Amino acid sequence: MKEQISHYLNDPVQLEKLYRTNKSSFKKNFNMLYPSIQGSSLADFWNTRLNYEADEINWGSKKDFLFVLSIAFLAGLIAKLPHIFSISEEFFYPRNIGFIVFPILASYFAWKHKLALKKVILLAVTTIAAAVFINVLPHFPESDTLILSCIHLLIVLWTVLGFAYTAGEFKAYNKRLQFLKYNGDLLVLSGLICIAGGLMTAITIGLFTLIDVYIEAFYFGYVVIFGLPAVPVLATYLIEKNPHLVGKISPVIARIFSPLVLVMLISYLAAMIFSGKDPYNDREFLLIFNVLLVGVMAIIFFSVAGASESKKSKPEVVILILLSIVTIIVNGIALSAILFRISEWGITPNRLAVLGANLLILVNLVMVTAKLLKVTSKKAALEDVGETITRYLPVYVIWAVIVTFSFPLIFGVQ
């Protein structure tokens, strides 16, 4: 891309088009090229545009902020529905927790990108159809099929959010990568807001308790129940208006935790051998094993998603390779355990869902590891690893759709 930037240096229209094809790659290559082209008015303009960082928090226009407050309030109302209409919390929250967050965030991006009416209708119909489906299923709280459907529905709704975030261009791999990075930034900023909110809650309740005024019921019933759903909405708004706010934090966190997670995984596998515990005969242990697997996958994904913002050194790439290889080993153990359980006790919805997820993750990990190995030999760029990850995302989505909507029909809910 460096050659293209140099070639179009006197053509602002083509330069803008090149920038919009891949903003992060454009910025990285432009900054490498800038020392040799500075002095040109257009080059200086782009340097200011790409590298200027505001000193203050940008809260946007009054209109933007009012819209954000409105949808945050709507999210709180959805969370409050069981209390408003006397709906069982045990029935409502497992099925509808995703509808409190994802459609609200999707509506923000639909509004921000001014999505075409056809795309808005598609988002609305998909969300409503999913809501109707999950809420008409029979109420058997202990049903494995129902639990699986509720869990995988979150992935389906996350995909709806991704469609809105990318303005309907979810097929573009660079858009998907930006979406993954947004998820990392959202987790970081939402966590910080929750910590601050938790401290404020403790202080507020503590102060009122000192004067014998007990506000716990009111505070949790109104302030917390409206405040929690507002957290991802506010965090999203701040990220969009202030990309510099957490843009540098997520890659740093991924950079710090990658080696730590690698050491933890190796230690965990060694300890497992001596502990006598194994996932072959212990269902809860197998469940924790798979949760661990998903968490490590997320670390790898966010590390690569943040890599476009800063060049990774070879040792950091090697750590990612080792982390991927160790995760493949963990995945192999989990996969063999679920195959063992199926051979011993037969197929169940849980075992089939875990088997499918483990197979998909294994294939994805092998692809990512192979690409990372090419990066070390300079046969591929780190951006290619991101492309490998994002091109595989639809496979996860398809499996989530199958589990969410087919399993209750195939296995029943009982």
From TrEMBL:
Would I find NADP among this entry's keywords? no
Q: Does the keyword Transmembrane apply?
A: yes
UniProtKB keywords: Membrane, Transmembrane, Transmembrane helix
Q: Which residues form the signal peptide?
A: none
**Membrane-crossing residues?**
65-85, 91-111, 120-140, 146-165, 186-211, 217-240, 252-273, 285-305, 317-340, 352-373, 393-413
Question: What is the name of this protein?
Answer: DUF4153 domain-containing protein
- This chain's source organism reads Salinimicrobium oceani
Output the lineage of the source organism.
Bacteria, Pseudomonadati, Bacteroidota, Flavobacteriia, Flavobacteriales
